[in-house]
Every structure is written in structure tokens, then in C-alpha cells.
Protein: Gamma-butyrolactone-binding protein
Amino acid sequence: MARQERAIRTRNAVLEAAATVFAEHGYESATIMQILDRAQVTKGALYFHFTSKEDLARGVLEHAVTEPPPEQPVKVQSFIDMGLLLAHRLPREPLLRGAARIAADQSAQRFFGQPWQDWVKLTAQQLTAAKEQGEVLPYVDPERTAQTMVAAFTGTQLMSQASTQMSDLEERVSLLYDLVLPSIAVPGVLGRLDTSPERGARLYAEYRVAVEARSAGG
Structure:
């Protein structure tokens, strides 16, 4: 059991190190030596768990899969909450940062396709539900709006990374929603929406409680 736990810790350390290196340098420029140096493990230990840099990147993408925040009665709020929660988590979670950089890295797409398409699909579903409830303007196309919002979030994230190491990402994403929502949501819904930068932290606290409850339930 002790050996198994040690192997799990080593694998997690390698994944987090790889994610950090990918986030800092991009997939193409990242090297196995940089990952080894960051993880402080031997080459043998790394290759015991992962066969290549591509395998490492796939591991980062798989382990960064995250659930959306709890559904809200106002579906536009659910759409907002997904972005605010992600903006809170990205600066704090290496696996998410690494996955986001891989997803945005054009040089990596020949290996991994377009991982952000899942995000576009989920966003479009949220906007479709909001439109069915009469919360968005009639001309809003959920699919095209979702693609635009994912692209805008990604650009905002990269700008925040370059200028402040994502320390202001929550504020930037909050402003993004403030600027975009008047062209999406009907006036009667706008006044009921919470786009504050602090909302992501509150959602994260609720998210952790839900995860721990599920873990305890087995």
C-alpha cells in the first residue's frame, strides 16, 4: 500500500510539473528535462508513468476536466458562473493552467485536436437553455456566441498571464461579462445577474463542499 501511494504521489507530481511547464512555455517549447527538473524525479520514474511528452500532455488534459458550477434558476447566470469559476481556479491550479495553454497552443492541435470545443459545446447548451427561458435576445445564436465567448475568455486569460501572471484574471473576466451581457441578455434579466469578481471564490467554496460530499458518499 505504501508503494502504491508513493507511485500515485510521484505520478501527480510529474503531472503538476508538466502542467506548469506547458503553461509557461507552451507544448512545443516544453522539454522533458524542464519537467524532470520541476518535478524533482528521475527520468526512470517519469517514464514509468508516461511514455512521452505527448502522453504527459494527454494526462494533463484528462486530469483538468472539471464540472460546471451548480445550475442556477436564471440560465444566463449559469453561463456567467462557469467563466467566473474558471477565472478563480486557473491561477491556483497548475493542471487547469497547463490544459488551458495546450488547448490554446496551435502547435499542439495536430496531436490533441481542439480540446476547447467541449467548452464551446457546454456554453452553447447553457445559452440555448437561457434562450428557451426567454432570457436572451431573439437574435442571439447560442453556437456562434459560445465560440466568440470562449475565444474572448482565452484571449483575456493570455493577456492576464502575460501582464500579471493571472493575478487580475477575475477582474478582467468580470469586466468581459459586463461589456458583453447587454448584447446577449434581455433587459429584465440584466439587473438580476451577478458578475462580480468575488463570485468565483464563493462558487469555488460551494464546489469544494460538493466534491467532498460526493467523496465521502463513496
